[in-house]
Write a structure and sequence with these properties.
Elements: H1 5-32, H2 52-76, H3 79-111, H4 123-143, H5 148-175, H6 190-193, H7 199-242
Helix pairs in contact: 1-7, 2-3, 2-5, 2-7, 3-4, 3-5, 3-7, 4-5
Length: 243
């Protein structure tokens, strides 16, 4: 569904206002008005909950969108769907990398403060990194194929199967293994060690970051369309010059 310029600008402005309130709540109101308690071990690094976890929710939402577009591409052969799938994966990888970075930062200041350890190959860290690499391989696959229809079809198949791994690598398998992360075997779930008042910021943060991802996705689709149009004009100009 297309949006008018005015509608798109209104949504963008609303998201800016929404995320401004989320950031204020996370760093100011969350401590002064919501009275977030000092949580044992986590202390105030628990505020990273508002950023680290939404990154993964956002990545999962984008990979679901990418898989749906790839499925449509396989069903209809529409290269527009392939382009949309590529745009969604592009933004998904961005949020996956941000999830890894915020996770590394959180782990350092929670578990390894005073050391130079920023990555310890914890099962959940490792599987999240593997998940990002799986989607990075999507672009490596695309770049190895020249014919547009073949590239769209093979990439779509890969993308659908890549999405199948998401719940297992990001949720199911890490919870079955020993890990320092909450919710893993032998550890309480995060909801059990965080104060309920934090949900007043956490859930709006998830919605806000997914909204930001949607804006980035639309911009990426627009960029891909402009690149495709430029390539077509270049090809037509070259053919015209040859004749």
């Amino acid at each position: 569904m297309s949006l008018t310029g005015a509608c798109y600008r209104s949504i963008r402005l609303a998201l800016v206002a929404w995320m401004t309130l989320v950031l204020l709540a996370a760093f100011s109101f969350g401590g002064l008005l919501l009275n977030v308690p000092r949580i044992p071990i986590l202390e105030h690094t628990a505020r990273n909950l508002y950023f680290h976890v939404p990154m993964w929710f956002t990545m999962m939402a984008l990979t679901a969108m990418a898989a749906w577009q790839s499925f449509r591409c396989l069903k209809t052969g529409d290269l527009e769907c392939d382009m949309r799938a590529r745009a969604a994966v592009h933004v998904a990888i961005l949020f996956g990398v941000l999830g890894l970075l915020t996770g590394s930062y959180w782990a350092h200041y929670t578990w390894y403060e005073g050391t130079d350890i920023w990555w310890n190959f914890d099962p959940k860290q490792t599987m999240a990194a593997v998940q990002v690499l799986i989607y990075g391989a999507y672009f490596a696959l695309r770049n190895s194929l020249d014919e547009p229809e073949k590239r769209a079809r093979i990439s779509a198949v890969y993308n659908v199967f890549a999405f199948v791994t998401v719940p297992f690598l990001l949720y199911v398998l890490p919870r079955q293994m020993e890990s320092l992360h909450p919710g893993a075997e032998g550890n309480p779930a995060f909801s059990e060690i965080t104060h309920p008042v934090m949900r007043l910021v956490f859930y709006p943060a998830i919605a806000g970051f997914i909204g930001v991802a949607w804006l980035l996705y639309r911009q990426r689709v627009r960029t891909y369309r402009l690149e495709a149009a430029a390539d077509r004009r270049g090809s037509e100009a070259l053919i015209g010059h040859m004749h």
